[in-house]
Amino acid sequence: MGIMQHKVGFIGFGGMAKHHFEILSGYDRVTVKGIYDIDPQVMENAKNDGIYTYPSKKALLADEELDMVLVATTNEVHKDLAIEAMAAGKNVICEKPVTISSEELLEIIEASEKYGKVFTIDQNRRTNKDFVLMKRKVEEGLLGKPYVIESRVEGSRGMPKGWRTLKHLGGGMMLDWGVHLIDQIMYMVDEKVTNVFCKMYHIQYAEVDDNFRLTMTFESGLTAHIEVSTNNYITHPRWYVLGEDGTLQIDDWDCDGKIVRCIDKENEWEEKIFYTKAGPTKTMAPRSKESIETMIISEPLDVVDDLTVVYNQFADAIEGIAPLTITPQQALRVMRVMEASFESAQTGMAIATDI
Ligand SMILES: NC(=O)c1ccc[n+]([C@@H]2O[C@H](COP(=O)([O-])OP(=O)(O)OC[C@H]3O[C@@H](n4cnc5c(N)ncnc54)[C@H](O)[C@@H]3O)[C@@H](O)[C@H]2O)c1
After folding, report:
1. What is the residue extent of each domain of the chain?
2. Cα(95) to centroid(ligand 1), Å
3. Quick check: CB of 23 below 6 Å from ligand 1?
């Protein structure tokens, strides 16, 4: 059997779709046949760049050569477009956040079953190297049992203008970045989420969250603390993980980091009090250097982190080679955590969940 070639049509051709286009231009398994965007100027520019533009969405969906459609529009129309495309017989890859509510996603899931089409989501940050490095080190057991995972992305330039600042178009940092960071943690931790507490901030935009702090608790008691900020002039590390036997820190997307772990658990307290500039302390006295080891950790060079990974998984599922990797059911759980976060932020209460 020869290698199956897939042809994809893009609905929406903004910044992210252009990135898909670029990546797929160097990838044999999936070819972009053409695009459609509701904005005539975008269509004009694409045409000038030599990209095939369908005269209408209908024409794109009627093209029998296409077996894949990418939905890369603003978020409020993902649902309708995804369902329309599946009804037209296409398998669909949809940009994140998959929809702006879990009800909408349930409609997509129903359509995917009804039309027998594969539906996946570009929750593509599972292959980010900083995440993979953290996950591997924790799973190798280097820290002992983890009990807190802190994940942060922080900028200081505010949010990009446009739809990201508007609620009805699915704006705000929870739906934009939160979706990725929650997905990473839920992909790593195979447990139910039992509690969600979230504080949202509106530094520049009253309408949507431009910063948030979320604490989610898993069944075992493991907590994940997630922060997305657009107003931090001094940043925290990208990852900070506490295990019972050690601590991991990864500074940034370049993956510079370290693990400091305990190699001598004996806890002989000296009789004398330790003096700091803030006064005397026994509990916070530093450990002896001999009782810990420091391991430098760095970028995992074997990890491929680009959109071809997601398209490969999508194609594998269409061809029946492997089950889908990024499933609508996983996206639904992430969506429900985000919805509990909004409820928590609005009420000021922690929300008990069964997600
Ligand atoms: N996975 C990632 O890492 C990542 C990164 C950035 C953006 N995204 C997602 O990609 C999507 C697009 O974001 P963007 O940054 O490219 O936005 P953008 O504003 O640059 O582009 C959106 C495009 O969609 C078009 N559009 C809107 N409604 C349409 C419709 N009904 N039919 C056809 N075209 C329509 C607009 O004209 C515009 O050209 C969003 O869902 C966003 O969350 C994902």
Report:
1. 6-122, 126-304
2. 8
3. no
User: Does the beta carbon of 262 lie inside 6 Å of ligand 1?
Assistant: no
Which amino acid would we find at residue 80? D
Mean pLDDT (10-residue bins), the chain, 355 residues: 84 98 95 98 98 98 98 97 98 97 98 98 97 98 97 96 93 97 98 98 95 98 98 98 97 98 80 89 88 96 96 97 97 98 98 98
Q: Which atom of ligand 1 is nearest to the CA of 77?
A: 31
The verdict on the CB of residue 166 being under 6 Å from ligand 1 is no
Nearest Cα residue to 252 out of 79, 124, 137, 134: 134
Q: Which CATH number fits domain 6-122: 3.40.50.2300, 3.40.50.720, 3.90.226.10, 1.10.150.120?
A: 3.40.50.720
